Amino acid sequence: MANGTKVYRAKEGVVVEYDSSFLKLETSWDSFATCDDLPSYLAEAINAARNLGDSKLIKLELDAPIGNQEVWAAGVTYFRSRDARMQEAKSTGGGEFYDRVYNAARPELFFKSTPHRVVGPGGKVAIRSDAKWSVPEPELAVLISCSGKIFGYTIGNDMSSRDIEGENPLYLPQAKVYDRSCALGPGLLVTPAPLPSTTEIHLEIRRRGGQVFAGATSLNSMKRDINTLVEYLYRDNSFPYGCFLLTGTGIVPPDSFTLLQGDEIRITIDPIGTLVNFVG
């Protein structure tokens, strides 16, 4: 467990990948996710777990790794995101707001999703019917305990309607929060150590079998420190089941690009894995 343990929420229950096998833990996801010392809990739970055999991960029916947790998000944490937000809001006079947020001490934090709006691996994310310019936002997501401790990492897709947000910054909730506007997965990497700043995030979008966009960034391109984001989120706020925080995106497709029905979105973060979703 020195490099972390991968945990999945599957139809079979809470499943741990361990020594080339998959073990079913005798616990619910919320009981698991609200344990403050999760690495120690996992070490004990593995000894009592039921071995599902050495079947491949692809054979498991995976759900999004979320129970009753809320999903929040941080905006304008990468320079590329700041630049894109300023450009999309320039015509309406809102561009200056994003520049101010990028340089301010207080980060932009907003509510992203309730569990029922979250899509899991292989599921269909949605684009708003009243949007004309929609993009995925590939992000590192952290799972935070009730007490504010980061103990797990997963991949997040913060779907966004750029034309709606660009029309007026106050429209951000409509641009960001709607059914199937968020995806998480494929599982949770539980580790007591933070991911290194050299960790890379890769995005690939495929359409009718061909690649239409690819991009990459790394955590060392973030201006905001993740622990600082968490500290601000937990100020005067409580999360009895813990909370997911999407930490922002540094990959922005060109202004001429918009998602279409049927597109395949692939987001990879080693050592977490690859989150695959389809627009539908």
Question: Can you give a write-up of this model?
Answer:
- This protein is of the alpha+beta class and about 280 residues long.
- The chain folds into two domains: about 5-60, no CATH class; about 70-280, Fumarylacetoacetase-like, C-terminal domain (Fumarylacetoacetate hydrolase, domain 2, Alpha-Beta Complex).
- About 20% of the residues lie in helices and about 35% in strands.
- The chain has seven helices and 18 strands.
- The strands form three sheets. Strands 1, 2, 3, 4, 5, 6, 7, 10, 11, 13 and 16 form an eleven-stranded mixed β-sheet that branches.
- A hairpin with a 2-residue loop joins strand 1 (about 5-10) and strand 2.
Key words describing this protein structure:
single chain; 280 residues; alpha+beta; Fumarylacetoacetate hydrolase, domain 2; 2 domains; eleven-stranded mixed sheet; five-stranded mixed sheet; 7 helices; 19% helix
| Percent helix | 10-25%
Instruction: List the uncertain runs.
Output: none
CATH class type of the largest domain: Alpha Beta
Largest sheet: 11 strands, mixed
Named CATH architecture of the largest domain: Alpha-Beta Complex
Number of strands: 18
| Average pLDDT taken over every residue | 89
Structural class: alpha+beta
**Gap from first CA to last CA:** 38 Å
Reported by name, the CATH topology of the largest domain is Fumarylacetoacetate hydrolase, domain 2
In terms of DSSP E residues, the strand content is 25-35%
Order of helices and strands: EEEHHEEHHEEEEEEEHHEEEHEEE
